[in-house]
């Protein structure tokens, strides 16, 4: 089987990050691996200029390279899009050449060892910077190709390039040529996104170049939206995990008869509420970020439409109208389901606060009773002390030699009586207070 002037385009997007500034961002190493296979005299990092808000090459817009494959050349263009880096890489037949017939076996040679397909790494930090990538396969149609055979042809090209089959999730037209989309609708992180574009004429190729920057931006916002939705699924899983634990451990059931139970929950519930609220806010942020990037996505489609109102954009609009609607509805459903748990936290904290305040009130009442009892005893003692004062002459009575008969000096006897009166009076007051109904 032959194909006309095949080209492979790789669009790859990575988030900028302070831990991997400028040349240390993994996107450049990833691109260099591809370059190293096809050419030995190009070092991408040495040619990057980070002094501009946009990452540009030092001397030219594209880094062009040759390969050992006949009639196959390529180029790389680094870009900055808002808070992210992007790479637009091409390997295939030069646009300036006449249409060249290639055997279909050329396709796996353009993707040796699945080099173009993103591979997950063990480095979680670097993995988190990856927004996503799209591989675009383009080839010209021969005159005898039947329209009902185009999907089969596109699937054949895909299988030859990546060595496996993917289901065709969508098909349509773009720039007057047929385009087919292959990816998993589950949007798993390791699932590749591949487009097969079967070109009708050279005019399609020129229009492709005209809208190239907008196509790059469309793909960027698409991958960013999908990645944010994927991250929201991780938040959802953590919320579901916590929700099940709360139900199993009956964290919101407060038993005021078990003081230790209350003390444990008094320490745990506020911490759990803080963590749970943080997750909910993360879900809300995901929804807001998706809406922002969806707005940017739709704006680009409007700009293309403004340049040529006849252009059919249904292929791209399917993502914004169907997929993004599903993302937004799913996150809204999650928020509606898990947000009421915050009310349970508030209720549990209020109950615990009420129990603690009640316990404190009882302690304050006991302390007040004790003070009243002691006060009563002191008052009685003072009264007795007054009696002692009237007995001052007894103090001056001479002390005799201590003996059993003279053991109780009149003064000692008077003081002892005062203390005993105070104790009896204090106990009496305490008993009366205790018997008083609450």
Kindly describe this structure:
This protein is an alpha+beta fold and about 450 residues long. The protein has helices spanning about 25-40, 105-110, 125-130, 150-160, 200-210, 210-250, 260-305, 315-340, 340-390, 390-395, 410-435; strands spanning about 1-15, 50, 55, 65, 75-80, 85-90, 100-105, 130-140, 170-175, 175-180, 195-200. The protein has 3 domains: about 1-210, no CATH class; about 225-340, no CATH class; about 360-435. It has 11 helices and 11 strands. Strands 1, 4, 5, 6, 7, 8, 9, 10 and 11 form a 9-stranded mixed beta sheet that branches. The chain has a two-stranded antiparallel ribbon with strand order 2-3. The longest helix has about 50 residues, at about 340-390. The radius of gyration is 41 Å and the shape is elongated.
């Amino acid at each position: 089987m032959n194909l006309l002037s095949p080209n492979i385009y790789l669009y790859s997007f990575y988030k900028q990050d302070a831990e991997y500034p400028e040349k240390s961002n993994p996107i450049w190493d990833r691109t260099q691996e591809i370059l190293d296979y096809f050419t030995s005299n190009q070092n991408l990092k040495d040619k990057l200029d980070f002094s501009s808000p946009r990452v540009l090459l030092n001397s030219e817009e594209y880094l062009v390279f040759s390969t050992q494959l006949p009639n196959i050349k390529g180029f790389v263009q680094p870009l900055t899009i808002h808070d992210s880096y992007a790479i637009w890489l091409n390997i295939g037949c030069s646009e300036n050449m006449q249409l060249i017939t290639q055997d279909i076996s050329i396709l796996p040679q353009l993707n040796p060892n699945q080099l173009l397909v993103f591979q997950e790494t063990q480095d979680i930090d670097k993995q988190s910077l990856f927004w996503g990538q799209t591989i675009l396969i383009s080839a010209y149609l021969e005159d005898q190709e039947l329209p009902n055979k185009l999907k089969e042809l596109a699937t054949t090209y895909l299988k030859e390039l990546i060595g496996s089959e993917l289901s065709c999730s969508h098909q349509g037209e773009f720039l007057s040529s047929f385009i087919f989309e292959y990816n998993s609708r589950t949007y798993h992180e390791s699932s590749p996104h591949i487009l097969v574009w079967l070109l009708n004429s050279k005019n399609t190729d020129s229009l492709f170049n005209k809208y190239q920057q907008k196509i790059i931006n469309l793909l960027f916002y698409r991958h960013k939206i999908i990645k944010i939705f994927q991250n929201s699924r991780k938040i959802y899983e953590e919320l579901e995990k916590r929700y099940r634990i709360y139900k199993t451990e009956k964290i919101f059931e407060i038993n005021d008869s078990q003081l230790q139970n209350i003390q444990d929950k008094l320490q745990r519930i506020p911490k759990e509420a803080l963590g749970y609220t943080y997750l909910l806010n993360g879900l809300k942020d995901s929804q807001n970020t998706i809406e922002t990037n969806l707005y940017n996505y739709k704006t680009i489609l409007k700009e293309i439409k403004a340049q040529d109102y006849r252009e059919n954009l249904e292929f791209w609009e399917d993502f914004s109208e169907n997929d993004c609607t599903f993302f937004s509805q799913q996150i809204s459903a999650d928020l509606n389901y898990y947000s009421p748990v915050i009310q349970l936290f508030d209720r549990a904290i209020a109950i615990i606060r009420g129990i603690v305040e009640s316990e404190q009130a009882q302690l304050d009442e006991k302390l007040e009773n004790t003070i009243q009892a002691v006060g009563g005893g002191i008052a009685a003692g003072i009264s007795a002390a007054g009696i002692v004062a009237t007995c001052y002459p007894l103090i001056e009575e001479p002390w005799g030699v201590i003996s059993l008969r003279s053991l109780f000096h009149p003064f000692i006897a008077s003081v002892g009586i005062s203390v005993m009166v105070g104790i009896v009076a204090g106990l009496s007051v305490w008993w009366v207070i205790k018997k008083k109904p609450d």
